[in-house]
Write a structure and sequence with these properties.
The chain has ten helices and eight strands. It has 219 residues and is of the alpha/beta class. The strands form two sheets. Strands 5-4-1-6-7-8 form a six-stranded parallel sheet, with helices on both faces. It has a two-stranded parallel sheet with strand order 2-3.
């Protein structure tokens, strides 16, 4: 088994602890948008389009138009306000910088985020971007975690082995099951709000503050 060289961090729910207000529909509602669709239909539409949100701003714009009946030319301003609201809602985990600083002594740190663009702003505001060697954002690469974003990370380090990477995140599906499938090690920060972990992580922890120790256990 290879030693860990690369720590791949999720952002929302991981470096910034999960809040229900982070959900797309809660944020859009917080902007004062009201949909003519019944809640079950709106939830279904959001679930079916969420991959499009993360791939490009155009996908997000199309959803806003369809779900809330606004004019297309209004959507850039809505998205700017959406990102500002998410950034203002986010609160950095109190052990985030300590954890990154400790891991950076012997590892390369990477970001892997399904995002409309706001997570880069969150890291910038918190002064954390300097800890990361590379950042992989779905909206910039036009691929999501489920669509190959983790594979793109491996392709960026062709001389590295998959088990030299550990994915660290709170989504059992996006941050654990998907990277584990391609050979990465995994550390799950438990978050039952996103559902149970679909596969057994290498290590599960209750808090970001336990991640540095968990990486050490994995090697």
């Amino acid at each position: 088994m290879s030693p860990i060289k690369y720590c791949v961090f999720d952002v929302i729910g991981t470096l910034f602890p999960w809040k229900e207000s982070f959900r797309f529909l809660n944020l859009l509602g917080g902007l004062g948008l009201k949909s003519g669709l019944p809640d079950p239909e709106l939830n279904k539409l959001c679930s079916s389009r969420i991959e499009d949100f993360f791939k490009s701003q155009e996908g997000f714009k199309d959803f806003i138009v369809e779900a809330y009946g606004v004019e297309h030319q209004e959507t850039p301003g809505i998205i700017d306000r959406f990102d500002d609201l998410l950034i203002s809602e986010a609160r950095l985990h109190p052990q985030a910088e300590t954890t990154l600083k400790e891991l950076a002594k012997g590892h390369y740190l990477l970001v892997c985020s399904d995002t409309t663009g706001s997570t880069k702003g969150m890291l910038e505001k918190a002064g954390l971007r300097g800890y990361f060697q590379r950042e992989f954002y779905s909206n910039e690469m036009h691929i999501t975690k489920s669509g190959g974003l983790y594979s793109a990370i491996l392709e960026s380090y062709p001389s590295a082995k998959p088990d030299e990477f550990v994915s660290i995140g709170d989504s059992g599906r996006a941050d654990i099951a998907i990277p584990k499938r391609i050979g990465m090690k995994t550390i799950w920060i438990r978050n039952e709000a996103l559902g149970p972990c679909q596969v057994e992580p290498d290590i599960a922890v209750d808090d970001l503050g336990a991640v540095a120790k968990a990486v050490g256990i994995l090697g």
